[in-house]
Design goal:
The complex is a heterodimer of chains A (480) and B (99).
Chain A lengths: L6 H9 L5 H19 L2 E4 L1 H17 L10 E5 L26 H8 L3 E6 L33 H9 L4 E6 L5 H7 L2 E4 L19 E6 L2 H11 L29 E5 L8 H16 L3 E5 L7 H16 L18 H12 L2 H14 L5 H21 L5 E5 L15 H6 L5 H6 L3 E8 L5 E7 L5 H15 L5
Chain B lengths: L4 H10 L6 H18 L37 H5 L5 E2 L2 E2 L8
Antiparallel strand pairs in B: 1-2
Classes of the chains: A alpha/beta (480), B mainly alpha (99).
Chain lengths: 480, 99
């Protein structure tokens, strides 16, 4: 069944000639297109491109040459990551007809590894949101409970992975946009170290916080997808030079004696069932032989304020480019250039983007810069220092991803501040630039998934994956 | 109140964003609420703290620079393909300077 295949099962099927990459791609496309009316996870499909990649994989297999780590694997790409010749909307009406002239580095690497891109997934407009309700193309429904949100902003990628309409998917994370939807949909979501994956071709939201990251139904599949996309790229000068270790080799189960910190600030204000599931998860870690201790990350309570200053400031600058000149959409019949800018942007952006552009412009404006933007950058340094100090005592930090599980569509969309506050546990990882992930940790009595968050030191994805993999296996949480 | 409607209209002008009267009203209330929350940062003593603009790792200053080698570019036709209005190899825009 396509909906449950893992990467290694795809590889085994191809080797045993149970199916060819082309047959698998055709079936996966058919399945994903048929299932999409349930969740609205995909915004576009790219069958020609998928079949072309599949044909290359079949040729390599027939010739006995290396078909790649992702050979034949049907997958999805969040629609904020550009794909040459395939419409990339960013969930915005402004880019409804935008056809990128180049591929993102992560996309190139996936296809070089034989990964078969089925299509592009729905998301909050320009990745701004925590529920996917900010997409101009309608909300995504959570495959676990169709009246609920899948989380955001990578809600389409999380939903497709959970629904089985993609084996794995790429999302992007600026303040929790991979981990929170992963937790809401019951899949694995990884935010790598800042700079571990090239941002070239990731449409910019907040450049100092933006990450591309994998979503998968198991830790090992997420690790393998990261293996393919990680590594320095001369097209992104902020991409890290550090060599990429073998992530799968780290999945050796050796977590006995690892020191795990539970920061007390991340357990205040957690919904009771979410707290119970995380507590049960911590018991599993103890059974695996981990040493668990309480720690403190005292600056946490300032993280939301810090994050929403920095991300809106950077967004207001990055989104200035959508001016009606270069990117497909121009509104009105303004007589002057200035009026054309204002009309295009006023009618093109949705409410959340406008709010963030306004906040960002405000905090950067003359007279407010020191009080807001500069202050937030100093608080960001203190948050990073909190983690640095904690990692002198512990090897990993474990918390909930979100204070509560998936909520009903429409339930929180009226109050922007309430929605922002729900990002409290996920923004800190992006601010510090450390690797972090969500791993499934059971469900509530209503059957809603809960995600456990693991933070690790800069570039210690191996340690993070080792712990997550051991946890997933001990808890029986793999495979959705 | 942290922000008035007049200030909201001024900031919208800076951001090249046309807002309806209804949007200005809602934006004022939303921004006021958010800015009030953000005020809590003032409690935190940040004297002597270096601002963190970017996540940085130890590396040679020029380590991320690539060789200065010419490469093929997108080309005019491709670069202009997404323009709402173009002609003769240029983007076309409404009048810039009032006469």
């Amino acid at each position: 069944m396509i909906a449950e295949l893992t990467i290694s099962e795809v590889q085994a099927g191809l080797r045993a000639k149970t199916f060819s990459a082309t047959e698998l791609a055709k079936n996966a496309l058919k399945f994903a297109e048929a299932e999409n009316s349930k969740t609205n996870a995909y915004l576009s499909f790219c069958p020609e491109r998928a079949l072309a990649t599949a044909a290359r994989v079949d040729k390599a297999l027939a010739e006995g040459t290396d078909a790649g780590l992702l050979a034949g694997v049907p997958l999805a790409i969040k629609d904020v990551i550009v794909t040459k010749g395939v419409r990339t909307t960013c969930g915005s009406r402004l880019l409804e007809h935008y056809i990128p002239p180049y591929d993102a580095t992560a996309v190139i690497r996936i296809e070089q590894a034989g990964g078969v891109i089925l299509g592009k997934t729905n998301c909050d407009e320009f990745a701004m949101g925590s529920s996917n309700e900010n997409s101009a193309y309608g909300p995504v429904r959570n495959p676990v409970a169709l009246d609920r949100v899948p989380g955001g902003s990578s809600g389409g990628s999380a939903a497709a992975t959970a629904q089985g309409t993609a084996v794995v998917a790429l999302g992007s994370d600026t303040g929790g946009s991979v981990r929170q939807p992963a937790s809401f949909c019951g899949v694995v979501g990884v935010t790598p170290t800042y700079g571990r994956v090239s941002r070239y071709g990731l449409v910019a939201f907040a450049s100092s916080l933006d990450h591309i990251g994998p979503l998968a139904r198991s830790v090992s599949d997420a690790a393998l997808l990261l293996q393919v996309i990680a590594g320095h790229d001369e097209m992104d000068s902020t991409s890290a030079l550090a060599p990429v270790p073998d992530y799968l080799a780290a999945l050796d189960g050796k977590v006995r004696g690892k020191k795990i910190g539970l920061p007390k600030e991340y357990f205040e204000g957690v919904a009771s069932e979410t707290g119970d599931r995380i507590a049960a998860g911590v018991e599993i870690l103890k059974k695996l032989g981990c040493e668990v201790r309480e720690i403190s990350l005292p600056v946490t309570k300032y993280a939301i304020s810090c994050y929403y200053i920095i991300c809106t400031a950077e967004a207001s600058s990055n989104l200035a480019r959508y001016d009606g000149v270069r990117y497909t959409t121009r509104s009105g019949d303004a007589g002057t250039l200035s009026e054309m800018y204002k009309q295009t942007r006023g009618s093109g952006f949705g409410a959340e983007c406008k709010r963030r552009i306004m906040l960002g412009t405000y905090v950067l404006s003359s007279g407010y810069y020191d009080a807001y933007y500069l202050k937030a950058q100093k608080v960001r340094a203190l948050i990073a220092e909190d983690f640095r100090r904690a990692f002198t005592e512990v090897d990993a930090i474990v918390t909930p991803v979100s204070p509560f599980p998936a909520f009903k569509i429409g339930e929180k969309s009226g109050d922007p501040m309430e929605m922002y506050l729900s990002d409290i546990y996920s923004v800190t990882g992006d601010l510090a630039g450390i690797p972090c992930m969500s791993v499934p940790c059971g469900t509530t009595s209503e059957g809603l998934p809960v995600g456990m968050q693991i933070f690790s030191r800069h570039f210690d994805e191996p340690g993070m994956f080792r712990l997550a993999d051991a946890f997933e296996k001990a808890g029986g949480f793999a495979g959705h | 109140l942290k922000i008035t409607e007049t200030e909201v209209r001024y900031v919208a002008g800076l951001a090249n964003l046309e807002l309806t009267d209804l949007e200005v009203d809602k934006m004022s209330r939303d921004m006021d609420q958010i800015l009030t929350h953000i005020e809590t940062l003032k409690e935190l003593d940040t004297s002597g703290v270096e601002p963190m603009a970017q996540v940085l790792y130890d590396a040679d200053e020029t380590a991320t620079l690539r060789a200065d080698v010419e490469r093929p570019t997108l080309g005019q036709e491709t670069a202009l393909a997404n323009a709402p209005l173009a002609g003769n190899g240029y983007y076309k825009v409404p009048r810039v300077i009032e006469r």
